[in-house]
Amino acid sequence: MNARLTLGLAALLLACSREREGSPVEALVGDATPRLEKTVGVPFKSPPKFEMRSKEEVRTFLEQRFATDLPDADLRGSERAYKRLGLLPDSLDLRGFMLKLLTEQIVGYYDPKAKVLYIVQGANDDMIAVTVSHELVHALQDQYFNLDSLQSIKRRNDRQVAAQAVMEGQATLEQVASMVGGGAAVNLPGGWDRVREMIRDGQSAMPTFAAAPLVIQETLLFPYLSGAEFMKNWKEKSGGKLPFGDMPVSTEQVMHPDRFFLNRDDPTVVTLPPIAGAGDVYDNDLGEFETRLLLFQHLKDRDAAFRGAAGWDGDRFASWTTSRGDNLAWLSVWDTSVDAAEFMDLMDTALLKRFDDLRPLGSTATRHLYSARGRTIAISAVEVNGRPCVLYVDVPAGASVDVIDLKKVKLEE
């Protein structure tokens, strides 16, 4: 799940800002521009433009971007899948909640279509100072890479989040570096985990964010924090090159830099066959990061979640609706059969913790079948093209769990 709409991280990183009481936005832009050019290492090809916007205009912008970037069919399909996985509550109106959340937090944003940095009128001066620095990095990026092209990555959630991690991570890293005194200063005590804790401490000022499901909180923060850590590694290893020519293609590569910089490990691309009798099918992927979140959501065990997702090598889910209700099939590919077996075992435990009415319907060495809350759930160890996989299926009670023809699944290394 991702939203390529700028989170108002200025409110979250106030501890990194300087006092600029009473400074007009034009002066802030003028002051920040040369500092950012120095820290990023490239100049603006043309001067950055900025305009002020009211809170109402910002909400209109968000609504328009949602309609363009996340059409209703895609939003419904994604929402179905995340609810079936227990990552979102059944009662949540995802579109309405995300609009409320982002409107609450946003202080400014760079629009790559208009090539303009917009600042919200009436925002706190310190928040504006941080936002100007962050969004000016996006304006600078857009002069060397087409930011809007990220939206052409359709139904490849994991790859899009990885690309966002480069963009938002660089903006966060360079914003902090420029405001606290250069590259050495970004080696904060405790690293970016400390920044994450600062964000947690500041949630009381953002009630909508504090009330957001874990998957929404963490997928919004991931590009900024994990992305900043990745870009810190990039700056140390790249010799000053910009990152846009060769970016990570998975959250696995962002979280495990050795799998990008040393022994590059691109994920297996999974293509599911058409599902018999299903009409409105939406398909996408989770990636290692969201697989880890799924395990943590139900296990509440950080080490188990990290361990269980660490062998991830690709996945694809399909969600659809029939007259009986919503359906989900999710196939994940693993580095080894041991990784697949561990993940399957942890998913069994996750189901036990998630459902108080979970009832076994019969198990074999390779398939565990359950009933819970009017649903039938199957977790199966399968092999596709010689690769160890785990197939998770959640359908209305009485429906068949044999919804994927494994012989027609395609895996691309």
What do you see in this structure?
- Mean pLDDT is 87; it is low at 4-23.
- It is globular, with a radius of gyration of 22 Å.
- The longest helix is centred in the middle third of the chain and has 25 residues, at 214-238.
- It starts with 24 loop residues before the first helix and ends with a strand.
- With 413 residues, it is of the alpha+beta class.
- It has helices at residues 25-40, 55-69, 72-84, 94-105, 125-142, 157-180, 191-201, 207-210, 214-238, 251-255, 258-261, 287-299, 302-309, 337-354; strands at residues 50-53, 108-111, 116-120, 269-271, 282-284, 312-322, 325-334, 359-363, 367-372, 375-384, 387-396, 410-412.
- β6 and β7 (325-334) form a beta hairpin.
- It has a 7-stranded antiparallel beta sheet with strand order 5-6-7-11-10-9-8.
- Helices cover 45% and strands 18% of the residues.
- The chain has 2 domains: 9-256, no CATH class; 269-412, no CATH class.
What's the order of the H and E elements? HEHHHEEHHHHHHHEEHHEEHEEEEE
How much of the sequence lies in strands comes to 15-25%
How many extended strands? 12
Rounded radius of gyration (Å) = 22 Å
Report how far apart the termini are.
Answer: 23 Å
Largest beta sheet: strand ordering: 5-6-7-11-10-9-8
Mean pLDDT: 87
Task: Summarize this structure as a short list of keywords or feature phrases.
single chain, 413 residues, alpha+beta, three-stranded mixed sheet
Short description:
The protein has 413 residues and is α+β, with helices and mostly antiparallel strands. The protein has helices at residues 25-40, 55-69, 72-84, 94-105, 125-142, 157-180, 191-201, 207-210, 214-238, 251-255, 258-261, 287-299, 302-309, 337-354, and strands at residues 50-53, 108-111, 116-120, 269-271, 282-284, 312-322, 325-334, 359-363, 367-372, 375-384, 387-396, 410-412. 45% of the residues are buried.
